[in-house]
Amino acid sequence: MTLEDFEKSLAESHEQKESEGSKDKDRSRHHRHRHHHRHRSSSRSRETRHGRDRHHEDSDRHRQKRSRRDDNGEDEESRHKRRHRHDSSHDRDRPKTEADPVASNSNESHLKRDSWMEAPSSIDIDYVQRPERRLQEQPQAKMLESDLTTKIHQREINDHLRDLRDGKVAEEIETTTAQHDVNYTFGDTGSQWRMTKLKAVYREAKNSGRKVDEVAIERFGDLRSFDDAREEEVELDRRDTYGESYVGKIKPSGELFQERKLEQGSRRSSRQEDKDIEPNVQEQGKSMEIEPPTGTTQLLDATALNRLRAKMMKAKLKGSAEATELEEQYNAAAALMANRKEGDVVVLGVMENRMLAGSSRGEVKPVENRRGRERGQVQENDDMSIEDMLREERRSRGQAGGEGMRLAERIAKDAKFDNDLEYMDDNAAKLAKRVQKSELNLKNTAISEFHKMNRVLDNCPLCHHEDTSTPPVAPVVSLATRTYLTLPTEPEISDGSSTIVPIQHRTNLLECDDDEWEEIRNFMKSLTRMYHDQGRDVIFYENAAHPDRKRHASLEVVPLPYSLGETSPAFFKEAILSADSEWTQHRKLIDTLAKSRQGLGKLAFRRTLVKEMPYFHVWFELDGGLGHVVEDSRRWPRGDLFAREILGGMLDLEPDVIKRQGKWSRSGDRRVEPFRKRWRNFHIQICTMTRPKALLLGNIDHAGKTWEALSNVAELVTTQAANRTEFIQECKAGKLDGVVVAYRTFGSFGITGQFDEELVSVLPKSMLFLAHCGAGYDQVDVHACSQRNPPIRVSNVPTAVDDATADVNMFLIIGALRNFNAGMHALREGKWRGVPAPRLGHDPEGKVLGILGMGGIGRNLKRKAEAFGMKVIYHNRRKLSEALAAGAEYVSFDELLATSDVISLNLPLNAHTRHIIGKPEFEKMKDDVVVVNTARGAVIDEAALVDALDSGKVYSAGLDVFEEEPKIHPGLTRNPNVLLVPHMGTWSVETQTSMEEWAIANVRQAVEQGTLKSIVPEQVDL
Ligand SMILES: [Zn+2]
After folding, report:
1. Ligand 1 mean position, distance from CA 447 (Å)
2. What is the mean pLDDT of residues 439-466?
3. 769-773/848-852 β-pairing
4. What region holds the Cwf19-like protein C-terminal domain (predicted)?
5. 478-659 against 691-800+992-1019: fold identical
6. Ligand 1 mean position to 458 CA, how many Å?
7. Disulfide: which of 110, 541, 643, 956 matches 977 by Cβ 3.0-4.6 Å?
8. Active-site residue 965, yes or no?
9. Rounded to 5 degrees, what are φ and ψ at 365?
10. What is the CATH number of domain 802-985?
11. Could you give the CA distance from residue 191 to residue 173 in angstroms, rounded to a whole number?
12. 62 an active-site residue?
């Protein structure tokens, strides 16, 4: 069935060629338009050839038809454009000739790929082109026209003469002076790469057996530059020999070039006589006057047919005269074959599950668990018939990577291609084996590909393994929504390098979708800024030269000194030109930077390279650089060696550093923390660019508008959970993915419970900040937050609460000193002051207030207490500066206990401060001491306090906080000397509002700048 298509299209192309061959005038016009009438019958195309109007009509109709029928319109369209561009650039680069059946086929192939019904011929692939070197040996129209000027024999061995002549006749060249100005001096900064280039010429000439001059022209563009470099080589050699002080020449004198010209001049004159002895070369594309092929009426089996086909293709590739004959033989045989309607030969196309997964045809079913969804995994669909698969195969066959390319490639790469036409006969079966598959194999291949992919995925160091909840082996330095930043394996080529990786396992970056690319570009932007801040340039490269290994795609980011950054394009160009020199059907260099400037912009890379072919691409700027299609993955340097050698050479690294390509390990990477520190401020730009989510835990009562206003920088989300179990469930289900910062209130404890290690471990990896709305954050396990990878940074509200808390503190001091509670209590019971009346209280004036924990609240309290005439002493872990202490005396803990009339607790609760005041401490206090606490209940051992109150050691207490809120120790409620307030320290509209405003400001700063306004002290150094 496939062969039928194949042969049909071959027949068409043959007719086409025939008709084209017969016209000898008006070539350029037809050359431009030839793709319009390719698929017509020959009579049709003869008609259309005669009228321009017909042409346009035709092409218009065709366009309409295509847009109507093609459900893949845009892709198809852009591919068309790409090919067209590709083709026209070839037209520019090389002699115009109609005698190029392969190229002309390729030109039109896409027009026929309207549907699977009209599958293209397998040689309709524009990857199949004869190398340019060969083309130069073709008769050239330009040469025929220029008989009156210089004639260079087409068998001229010194190919460079042709190039020398390019645009000038030889006489002109002779008269140009050998001396000329170059914009460099010997031994300057560009010298290193000119010498590299020169050595590469010698090396390649030696390896390939080609003439040095020939290679030199390829590399240097012309021989003069090459000779200049040779002069420089001599000069540098002398400087080396005679020492620094020796300077012979500063710029090239042109003497070597002069020498060459003299030599050529003498040779040329002896050769001009040969010009009439030009052999009669059969022009390609013309039908040949040969006898109709015989013996094609016999039935050939599939193998024989394949052999014939391969032979024919090879002849076409070579531009051999036999091509036409073979084609006819093949057509006839194939037609017969098709008539037998043998269904056992099918052709395997691209059967990667990933490609199929995108289709709606049901070859495979998507795996519907989370892992499957995330990775785009598929499983075999047993319901799918072979017919369906075939249809799919046909659909994809004409695309790059299809079977046509495979066969062409195999033939082309075969070592004996050049010199042994008969070789094909013996090897046709072998070479075609990939092309032919039984129905069974077709199905099995899809499945084995699927298994292979799964193996790769299971061992992938860059994948997050959801099923076992194992993070990637590579360190995650910075996580965005669809991509993340990691560090390259050691040893690094350049200090502080990094690597951008899509979270989903892609085999190359061209597989990434728009969203992923958006993030990749954001990373590229931010990294560029970061390295520039460090005074360095940066380049990016992707090595996708080994698609068969299905490795996780990554973009390597390499910072370079500015001086090297400028010359890096030259280094890469050089290296790419030296690579893959054996057989080239593609242009070696794909200048995506130029293409981006020509209008493709940021799409230059994605539109210019194709994901089905192995490639290497380096970015010198955000939008482009140089690309190269790798002809033979097996010959490409293993792993990342290609780029490492170029960069290592630029940076003068030792070979063992260049050659060693380490692996990631889980053992903890010492580079991560320093990198994160430098990266921190840039990370958030990534998040901002991808519109992060901000999660609200609890309620915002006063600053609602401020919260809403955050929606200009973040997506505001809430939790649906009513309790901790539900919340954990929600996190695990990925419903909060993309949350970068969470805002939490004291009251959200009811939903999430303690913000402990368990909770932190299930929070989305994207979450980097927690803005707690409160001064004390004992509900949050800061240590667990710091330990998580990546860490969660926590902020509190340190100063907004100071005033209100200190006010309550003062109220409690006065209330407790003056013993107001007993009287107020009696009054409500209708007993006036009560019987007996309460003890007389004490005035604050002149009393010593010992503040334990002289932070924001403590210092605020100090000012207020001094207004009441109290003398303030304090104890902290560290003594405050004079300015902060503002006259308060620093004393030891024990001294504070022993000398204070009133002890106020204003320190945060943590493991060290829990029960900091207990039985032994009470014993060290003065008799009739007053104890006040607005910090956290648990800093006092409540039971010990009750005992001390009962024993009369403590005169009275004023408490706003309790050890097990809202439960109150009964010993406190029954004691009339204790003034109790149900945690109302910040219970005021003004303070509640400013606390919320403050916490929201932390959220905003986190989103906008990647930092917190008031990070908790424990994390200041994180
Ligand atoms: Zn992976």
Report:
1. 19
2. 70
3. unpaired
4. 582-682
5. no
6. 8
7. 956
8. yes
9. -105, 140
10. 3.40.50.720
11. 27
12. no
